[in-house]
Amino acid sequence: MGVEVLSALRPRPGGRFVDGTLGGAGHAALVLDASSPTGWLFGCDRDGVAVEAASQRLAEKFAGRFEVRRGNYADLAGWLPERSCDAVLLDLGVSSPQLDSPERGFSFQQEGPLDMRMDNRQELTAADLVNGESAEALAGIFWKYGGERESRRIARAIVHDRALRKFETTRQLAELIERLSPRAGRKAHPATKVFQALRLAVNDELGSLRRGLEAAVKILKPGGRLAVITFHSLEDRAVKEFGRERSRGYTFAGAVDVPELRLPRAPELNWVTRKAILPGADELRENPRARSAQLRVFERM
Ligand SMILES: C[S@@+](CC[C@H](N)C(=O)[O-])C[C@H]1O[C@@H](n2cnc3c(N)ncnc32)[C@H](O)[C@@H]1O
Questions:
Q1: d(CA 270, CA 283)
Q2: What distance in angstroms lies between residue 267's CA and the mean position of ligand 1's atoms?
Q3: Residue 90's pLDDT band (cuts 50, 70, 90)
């Protein structure tokens, strides 16, 4: 969503921009190009391979105008001063190089270790969850992060099968799910939801998102822009929820908004567009993986 992201971030010479999910540095390069000759960009990614590739790509054309760091965007506020940036981009989820590398274990289509770590310095892998968690905990993960209706059945079958042989590969797990719920006319592969759920749990993606949104608000200057691209409803709901909460003129204690118990507070964000921005038809033709992308844009008050 290059065009949409640029119009959201409004890069200009002299501006300071942040890409919290650098990936292959596609968006970062667009922002640096559009803010030539003096725009500056801070980019980070949890994935060491991505950081290496992005640094090389950016150095070819934008030497001296960027800084790259390996780490979680949830920590942005520890690396950059408060109210110092003009725009922050978070393009969530996994990248094509991650999905297409069987050894990373993100894809059920290809045989690989059951890994799914974005940052391979982390200890916890998908295999640890699948082989170590109780049936109840696994069912909870599949339901909460994947909305998988067969969560209990799949979790029970995993616990049964792993007593005979531990789960080590992506295909081993995908085949168990195919056996339990055959594809029969369904568009999505039956393992889609379980794999999404494991990936979210292994990388604590929703926890990072919440902390990352809070960090982004801290480092943005008043008038600065926050753009977030989500790929599934759980992420989008979290971003919408955050936007609603920070654009209200009050807070409330507890889980329920009781008007009598509201505490006034200055709103921190404005919605730039109320509706999510979706990829155009041209982009969808070129990149079918963009079909579930949604862009939301906020302005720091
Ligand atoms: C969809 S890709 C980004 C692609 C990038 N916008 C581009 O133009 O090439 C998502 C990237 O975000 C990274 N990522 C996901 N969660 C992260 C987090 N909490 N902190 C830092 N990087 C993260 C992934 O490792 C992946 O490289």
A1: 28
A2: 28
A3: very high
- Ligand 1: which atom is nearest the Cα of residue 212? 19
User: Are 65 and 103 within 8 A, CB to CB?
Assistant: no
pLDDT, tens digit, 9 for 90 and up, residues 231-284: 999 999 999 999 999 999 999 888 889 998 899 999 999 999 989 999 999 889
Amino acid letter, 28: A
Using CA atoms, how far residue 5 sits from 10, 55, 193, 295, in Å, is 8, 21, 28, 8
Reported as a single tens digit per residue, the pLDDT across 51-64 is: 999 999 999 999 99
Which of 46, 204, 232, 234 gets mutated to test ligand 1 (max ligand atoms within 8 A of its CB)?
Answer: 46
Query: Could you tell me the two tokens for 182?
Result: 């055959």
Q: Give the pLDDT mean for 112-133.
A: 98
DSSP 119-158: STTS---HHHHHHHS-HHHHHHHHHHHH--TTHHHHHHHH
